[in-house]
């Protein structure tokens, strides 16, 4: 596994854990929600921008996308 892949995985884990905490979900349920809505793929796709931001930004990014998709 490359450093980039490890970084992408870390961003996803942080986003899932923070999303689960904020919305009172289990991390498994939050991960399923992310997977079903393509959030993991989006985080990986936007790695070049997200990795220059604080780690919490992956959560804010995911939260914004899910708010739009779950309207």
Overall pLDDT confidence: 95
Distance from N terminus to C terminus (CA atoms, Å) equals: 36 Å
SS-based structural class?
mainly alpha
The tally of structural domains comes to 1
Main sheet: strands, sense, barrel:
none
Helix coverage percent: over 70%
Instruction: Kindly estimate the percentage of residues that lie in beta strands according to DSSP.
Output: under 5%
Describe the protein.
By secondary structure, the protein is mostly helical. It has five helices and no strands. The chain has helices at residues 3-23, 27-36, 39-45, 47-50, 57-69. Helix 1 (3-23) crosses helix 2 and helix 1 packs across helix 3 (39-45). The relative contact order is 0.18. The model has no long low-confidence stretch (mean pLDDT 95).
List the helices and strands and how they pair.
Layout: H1 3-23, H2 27-36, H3 39-45, H4 47-50, H5 57-69
Helix pairs in contact: 1-2, 1-3, 1-5
Task: Provide a brief overview of the structure.
The chain is an all-alpha fold and 71 residues long.
Defining key terms:
5 helices, 0% strand, 71 residues, mainly alpha, globular, 77% helix
């Amino acid at each position: 596994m490359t450093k980039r892949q490890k970084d992408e995985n870390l961003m996803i884990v942080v986003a899932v854990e923070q999303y689960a905490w904020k919305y009172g979900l289990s991390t498994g349920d939050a991960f399923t929600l992310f997977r079903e809505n393509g959030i993991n793929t989006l985080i990986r796709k936007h790695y070049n921008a997200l990795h220059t931001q604080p780690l919490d930004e992956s959560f804010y990014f995911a939260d914004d996308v899910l708010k739009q998709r779950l309207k």
